[in-house]
Task: structure prediction
Amino acid sequence: MKTKLNVLFVAAILLFTSYVKAESKVSLRLNLQKGTTYEMTMAMNNNIDQDVMGQKMKIDQKMEMVSLYQVLDVLPTGNFLIEYSMQKIKVNMTVNGQEINMDSDGDASNPMNGPLKTIVSNKLKLELNKRGTVERVEGLEEYTKKLSENPQLAQSMQMFTNENSFKSYVGQTFSYFPENEVAKGEKWTSSLKLPSLMNMETTMNFEVADIKADQVTLNVTSDVNLDSPIEQMGMKMQMKAKGTQTGTMAIDIADGWLRSSSLNQKFDIHMNMKNPQSGEDMEIPMVMNSVATTQVVKK
Result:
């Protein structure tokens, strides 16, 4: 009898241990409900030190973008029909003490605000699958048309210039999804290529830092490379950059949508161009330190 009790006791412990292990694993996928809206606010503070022909230049830049994702329907395929709209774009920049401000909510008398106002008035329809991949986009033509009228704005918002670029832009928002269920301490890697964002290539390393009843916290480290031609003030340049990102992300377990993130970023940047006076090759080195945060409110 004693032997049987011991066996039962050991079996109970094994069953309990297996149950705890099973309960500690979570599956991260989109599980959206019709009628729900997600308001996503992305903010970035950039501090740039630049050297132009021996002249030191300091640039402080603050950017804010607010976007809405409204779930219109859950399709028979299990995909989600989303209405996407940009609600606000705001840029404040100080270059060696001189301020430059752009605001989609600002006074229309400021000519720099006008192009932003036209962008935020547009709406797109997206079809997202459970991994956050955009399978279909409708309505991008209006964005493309308006950006074609402002080449400088189009350069900084290349993600809206064609369908593939926009799919990549939205898809990178959900780059945190692992292949399988994960438990605390598990790690995985996601690689991204975003031609629309200066040919950016990113390798993101994720680790589950904590799992609570409704939320997963991830530690994030990334290596980023950019290599793209750009144009500033009529001058053509080739920009190359290498950088790192470190920070955390909080993911809601129930719907799989990001709730918050904070990333510290550092980039070493080199821009190559022809000296407009001598025609000789010249290099402009830059160092950029920034903090990028995202907050998502479910409505």
Notes: The first strand starts at residue 37 and ends at 52. The radius of gyration is 23 Å.
